[in-house]
Write a structure and sequence with these properties.
Layout (H helix, E strand, L loop, with lengths): L2 H7 L2 H44 L3 H11 L6 H5 L15 H21 L2 H31 L6 H11 L1 H46 L1
Helix pairs in contact: 2-3, 2-6, 2-8, 5-8, 6-7, 6-8
Amino acid sequence: MNAWNLIAQGDAVSKTVALLLLAMSVASWVVILWKSWVLKRALPDTARSIAAFWQAADMPQARERVAAFDREGVVSPLISATTQAAQGTLAATGDRAQQLTRVLRDALHAVLHKLHFGQVLLATVGSTAPFVGLLGTVWGIYHALIGISGGGQITLDRLAGPVGEALIMTAAGLAVAIPAVLAYNLFGRFVSRIEADLEGFARDLRELLSTTAR
């Protein structure tokens, strides 16, 4: 009897646990593949975009240069946010430095929200999948013992098979959790590096435009 037969012959709880682990695995791998693609492009693009910005002669040229490198749109939103607010609105009140601080902060938060997307799911899968698998194991062992006890004398040979099959759920839980945990930690490091670059760029951009406006 293999794992698929064990699941097929299980009750509603066993099947629910198996389907839940499958759903968690599919969801985490979709996020892992998507974030791998995004961060693989965003990490080098951020450095290139910032360098291209400072090598430009003026703001219009800087926008064009950054747009050519910024494939995931992590630097361009900060530059676009610095557009002068319409007069007569609360956004235009205060001096230029205050306006820039506000709009750059909001733009930075929006970009970081995009980069952090999926991290909560990976953390959730990594922390809960082993316990979901353990629940399936405990439930499977319980039903295996009930079935064996109803069949007469309990021997080691009769006990080893069903218990070993039930332990597959624990292995499945670990198989789902480990990639999610590794990806969460790796992506967290990449996002932190991009965040540090963007914060430094936003601060420098604010100082540049504040000085220019005087």
